[in-house]
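Lab manual, section 2.4: Encoding a predicted structure.

Procedure: take the sequence of the chain (137 residues), apply the prediction step described in section 2.3, and record the output as structure tokens. A sample record is shown.
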Amino acid sequence: MKIQELADKMGLTIHTIRYYEKEGLLDDRHVRRESNNYRNYSEEAVERLKLIKKFQSIGCSLAELKEVLQDHDTNTRTNLQIIDWIRSKKEEIESKKEEYDQMLVTLNKMLEYRTLLIDDPQKAQAMMSAWQAGSSD
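Recorded output:
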């Protein structure tokens, strides 16, 4: 299939697919050049892109993607090594979640304060005073 068809099928841009190819995430199994130099993508390319999207959805960087795909292709890691990697990735995400949760707490307080400035300025001032004093109220 041509690149536009693949892009449409996968919900990606042509630029993204070319980038993946340039970075080595797609190789000769996934894309071949025709005599007119057009790219022709195999059904394996569809499966590969699904795999890439799956690992991106869990926050894998480009370097991690390359490593994961290489391991997938060569089957070099043991199941225990893969389990360790999954646990590590899970811990990383849980840590980020805690950071995001704290950001949300702060944003909610800011929103509450700004809304109170409109609805009840005295209550807003009391809230700001408590916040500056280190209270969580």
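Check your result against the sample. The first strand starts at residue 31 and ends at 33.
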